[in-house]
């Protein structure tokens, strides 16, 4: 629908905005728009949380998230999938991730959105350090990228901005 | 040859630094670099749960390293 | 989190806005926000569509959608669920429905959102008349509310604005 | 007694109007009203797929009607 892919940064230090993602993905043939936003919670496993710091390997993230977007589009036959993740210090309620999927119908939009979010959480090199009211902090135990890791060819070959 | 290790997430905390230079033999692989890092007791238990990347490419343990490579140590991720 | 339930109209003739639904449902204990938007497609079953007219039995809709919101919150243990639907003439790309769910974690947010949207589509008394480029129109064949209909007690008893 | 039928969606098109007055016996039910509407050939095939409401309450066929009730005829829905 648009003349060329819109370049955007998948890893951003600034507060995330939903509107640009919606504008960049508008399509008259898509009746379903499914959006996920992950916000910072004030608690984790029973402990109060005051804020978070996210760090990311931005270049590798960009490549892996681009691959997740492409897989999502291909596997679920959805024309549009975009994912952005914030880094730096985030307060309670701040948005850490947006994922947007557009599809002709809602069934594939829901399935694709779930895949996109889960895959990003499991594979993108992003780390969350939680800070507690007493000033202490800890890194949240997450998903091993290395679990059964066999780097798929397309992860090596995808151009950095393969989101057409 | 010399490579540079880049520690991410909790591994930077465990290593006490985000970067470390490593001297390896000419034909060294990622596995050889990991083996050398295991001598650091603080890191030893975390390394098997890590993935590894050179530049913006994920690499397998048998990947051959080159002089000046930046090898990223990527502990379990927790984005989103 | 808020002092009292915010009153809002579930059936609206004006263009739908997402922002008020997000503001009205903000909660520091919810890490997951899942949103569905249904937009008017330029095609349906192979035929080009120029625009739509939605009509709704507003009073019954409000009651049924309030019940869907309540069921969604109770069945999926999600603190927030809001659904709004537009009526009147809509052009291609216009949003016909927004559904918003907030939950501590994403798994229940995804499941709840799907339930909320599917239930609204199957049960809310709303009708879509499609208009084609040649000026003709037809009502879209939809879901029988009457299929196995046995009016559940809570549908009769719910106050109109039972969205606390 | 007299009730008022309110036709929604395609049934308004089939009935040629959004409203119709119906005269029924005192103890009439929703089913009796439907039976009377079935004499309208244009509506007859659509009515079994419809749901019915009085005011803002969905009602079953055995629901008893009262003077002045507004009975909505709700064909299959297609919102969203």
Descriptive overview:
Chain A is an alpha+beta fold. Chain A has one domain (11-136): Aldehyde Oxidoreductase, domain 3 (Alpha-Beta Complex). Chain A has helices at residues 19-24, 58-76, 106-123, 153-157; strands at residues 11-12, 32-39, 43-44, 47-48, 51-56, 80-86, 88-91, 95-103, 126-131, 137-139. In chain A, the strands form three sheets. Chain A has a four-stranded mixed β-sheet, with helices on one face. The radius of gyration of chain A is 16 Å and the shape is elongated. The relative contact order of chain B is 0.31. Chain B is globular and about 35 Å long. A five-stranded mixed β-sheet of chain B has the order 2-1-5-3-4. With 80 residues, chain B is of the alpha+beta class. Chain B has helices at residues 10-15, 30-37, 41-44, and strands at 2-7, 19-23, 51-54, 57-59, 70-74. Classes of the chains: A alpha+beta (164), B alpha+beta (80). Chains in contact: A-B, A-C, C-D. At the A-B interface, strand 5, helix 2, helix 3 and strand 9 of A face strand 3 and strand 4 of B. Strand 2 (32-39) of chain A pairs antiparallel with strand 2 of chain C, so a sheet runs across the interface.
Short description:
By secondary structure, chain A is an alpha+beta fold. Chain A is 29% helix and 30% strand.
CATH architecture of chain B: Roll
Which range best describes the helical content of chain A: under 10%, 10-25%, 25-40%, 40-55%, 55-70% or over 70%? 25-40%
Structural class of chain A: alpha+beta
Quickly count the domains of chain A.
Answer: 1
Low-confidence sequence ranges of chain B: none
CATH class descriptor name of chain A: Alpha Beta
Give a short account of the largest sheet of chain B: 5 strands, mixed
Order of helices and strands of chain B: EHEHHEEE
Sequence of strands across the biggest β-sheet of chain A: 1-6-8-2
Shape designation of chain A = elongated
Q: Strand content of the residues of chain B, in percent?
A: 25-35%
Record field, number of beta strands of chain B: 5
